[in-house]
């Protein structure tokens, strides 16, 4: 029983360290703030001329690269919340460069099958970091 308790405590410690390296709480807070401000959920149409951004919805293991790419695109689109987006972009870039949050970065290339609008993209970020936080 003592060894099992030690194992559980060690596992909890590792998870909390991973969550800390991933800036989980900060990213969740910023993403929620952006979702509150971006209530617009226009349809993403890559072929049609549209003011709606089409951002990559990452495949598992490629989230960080896609989050970097998507937030860069959002910064170029000159959205009103650019200071928050810049902070998120910097956090994702640091995690990718320093190989933090290993489960989110199996490479530095963004791989995705679909694209979504800003709201879908932000919800993907939120769900990803909430899963780490559990």
UniProtKB/TrEMBL annotation:
InterPro entries: IL-9. Keywords: Signal. It comes from the Eukaryota. One of its GO terms (molecular function) is interleukin-9 receptor binding. GO terms for cellular component: extracellular space. Residues 1-19 form the signal peptide. This is Interleukin-9.
């Amino acid at each position: 029983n003592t060894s099992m308790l030690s194992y559980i405590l060690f596992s909890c410690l590792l998870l909390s360290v991973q969550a800390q390296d991933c800036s989980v709480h900060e990213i969740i807070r910023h993403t929620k703030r952006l979702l509150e401000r971006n209530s617009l959920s226009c349809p993403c149409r890559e072929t049609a001329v549209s003011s709606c951004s089409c951002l990559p919805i990452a495949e598992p293991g490629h989230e960080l690269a896609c989050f970097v790419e998507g937030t860069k695109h959002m910064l170029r689109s000159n959205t009103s919340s650019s200071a928050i987006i810049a902070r998120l972009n910097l956090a994702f870039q640091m995690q990718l460069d320093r190989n933090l949050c290993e489960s989110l970065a199996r490479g530095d290339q963004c791989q995705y099958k679909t694209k979504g609008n800003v709201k879908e993209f932000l919800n993907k970020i939120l769900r990803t970091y909430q899963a780490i936080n559990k």
